[in-house]
Amino acid sequence: MKNSLPEKKQRTLSRPDIAHIMQSAIALSISPVAFVDKEDNVVYVNNAFLSIWGYSGDDDIIGRSAACFWDIPGTPQSIERKIRDRGGWIGELTAFRKNRSTFPAQVSVTILSISDDVTECKMYTFVDISERVHAQQEQQRLLTDLEERVKELKCLYTILSIPNSRVSTLQSILESIVQLIPDSLRWPQHAFARVQLGSLDIRTANYQDVADSFKISLETLHEQGSIEVGYRNTGDTAASLTLLNEEKDMLTAASGEIARLIEYKWTESELIKNREKLLHADKLSSIGVLSAEIMHEINNPNNFIALNSKIVAQAWSDIMPILDEYYRNNGDYAVAGLAFDEARAEIPRLLDGISEGSERIRAITRRLQAFITRRGTAAFTLFNINDAIEKAIEFSKHMIDSSTDNFYVTLSKGPLMVRGDFFQIQQILINFITNACQALKTKADTIGIFSLLDENSVIVRVDDTGVGIDRKELAHVTDPFYSTKMRFGCSGLGLSISNDIAISHGGKIQLKSSPDNGTSAILFLPAAK
Predict the structure, then answer these.
(1) What is the CATH code for 134-270?
(2) Domain range 378-526, CATH architecture
(3) With 50 as the cut, is the pLDDT of residue 376 above it?
(4) Is the pLDDT of residue 444 over 70?
(5) 297 in helix, strand or coil?
(6) Which ranges constitute the DSSP H helices of 162-232?
(7) CATH T-level fold of 20-128
(8) Are the C-beta atoms of 468 and 517 separated by less than 8 Å?
(9) What pTM was estimated for this model as a whole?
(10) Same CATH fold assignment for domains 20-128 and 134-270
(11) Which of 37, 114, 352, 441 is most buried as measured by Cβ atoms within 10 A of its Cβ?
(12) What is the DSSP string of 263-290?
């Protein structure tokens, strides 16, 4: 007979047992659970709810409105309709802890009805999604930062690409940069930029002088400047519109590239200028040689005119007695289509005009030859500056007469003696007069020439009431090959050469002018002792 252990009888779980287990499961669940009645008041919360919401017991929770503990986006009616239609609802809400701090949570809402005689309620099951939301926000922040860095790199890349583009002038380069900078910032629609370099001041159309703008010194070998970047004041949002440190670092790096571009463009411009100077100097050298030959070719026929006109004049004088005798015996007759009485007075005048014209041609060619052959080689002599002024006026008379009806000269009564090359000083004065004539707008404008002695300096001033010169251009008018009238074919050498001549004589040239207010060109020379 075998011994056997008594069999353990398994008891079937009753409904009360199951209810107890379910109640324990809800109470001990790690997920916060809350029950809400039809009036939306909290009737039950588990321990996880108390822990996460920061309560030590449920006395401060039971009976209070659910709105004190969480807020579901949307209207209560729309949420209720979703729950009724689907028998439940899953979504996200904002939860309020006891200390009034908030956190995001995912919620699952289910309608519960225990029995026919028990009022239904809703069970809320929560999941704290703070870490997930924080991760999403951090991901979005990193993505935004990446986009900003891409914009900054694109700005730098575009700046680096400018030398290879078709932008041809320094001003055009800076204008392009000023337009590029705002697009690289967080709020380009509110950003402004400004670049100052020497006389250049380039800014965006929305530039505003604000106290907290970011300024960077822009230092090059030739000119000093700065870059200014900031955000316009936009009312209530002004406090938030500030540059990031990363943006400031980008702008600082960009300033170095901009300075490099300026140096590159300046070197390129100097190379172009020097090449143009060489080409122009070669042309002028050729013109000088050609002019000397032209003067020689003009002098040859002019000598025939001068010699022959004297012979013809002498011949007319010799035959006059015969012509007078013939007139007395035969009455009036025609000579070259003129009555003898008229021809007798007119022909000598015509012959004198030929001789005078020939002499004027000879004087002009002599002056031109002097300009070509005597510059920088003639010995200095003592002369009266007023004589040089009168000769310059004589040489420029045709241009003066065709430019103005108001020309006046006021010279010092006594002689103003200077030591130098008469022809070179005359060249300076002719250049002053030529520039004054070309600056006049109508013949009603005036030109005045003055000479005076001021202590130890002889001063000659040529004034005009013409178009004037802009302040930015005034600083460069004595530079070689620089002219405000390049489009009219001017070489830009007149004032440059005149300035060199004045300096070689121990003097200087000074220009005073402003747009539409005329110009004063002044020559200072040491008075001869």
Answers:
(1) 3.30.450
(2) 2-Layer Sandwich (3.30)
(3) no
(4) yes
(5) helix
(6) 170-183
(7) Beta-Lactamase (3.30.450)
(8) yes
(9) 0.40
(10) yes
(11) 37
(12) HHHHHHHHHHHHHHHHHHHHHHHHHHHH
